[in-house]
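Batch manifest, entry 17 of 40.
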Amino acid sequence: MLRYVYADQLNQCPRLKDEMFTHRADQFRTRLGWDVSVDARGHERDEYDALNPLYVIWETAEGGHGGSTRFLPTTGPVMANDHFAHLVSTPIRSPLIWECTPFCMAPGQGPNVAAALMLGGGELMNGFSIRHFVGVFDARMVRIHCRVGSSPEVLGSTGEVRGKDATGLALDFGSSIWRPRTASQRVQVSRRR
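Output type: structure tokens
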């Protein structure tokens, strides 16, 4: 099940909160070898988690974290502009463009979870009139995006494009790739920003 949760609501979902930040540490520090901070509880968090972002979280049937991504409008601080500005010629700032980073999958989850998170992004596009998403990702994520029907335009990359340390900055094609579900299935997300 997809859950839409602002950071200031995460304490209402303690298991999802704990597992999301633990899985982020496992994915980015342990498996990908990225230089990220992990606290004493084993949580990977950064300064953007303190900005009350909106998380889209796949909750497993057992109530655990299956995968998640974080969304912030590019009108404020975002990773793409603050740490990866060298990948583009000008900062990305628009109320119509939001950053969706990091994209995290829990160990053992299948492609259906990635597809569900993409669907959640589509719901946000419809609900907030967003035209594009920008994200910072490992180059291998392009294959996952393509498999679930979202082929991002890569704006810039650094590192070895085919190597495991590659990082990219991409802009999704936009709302035309998302097919809204029926009215009875649409998810309502409050516009608290």
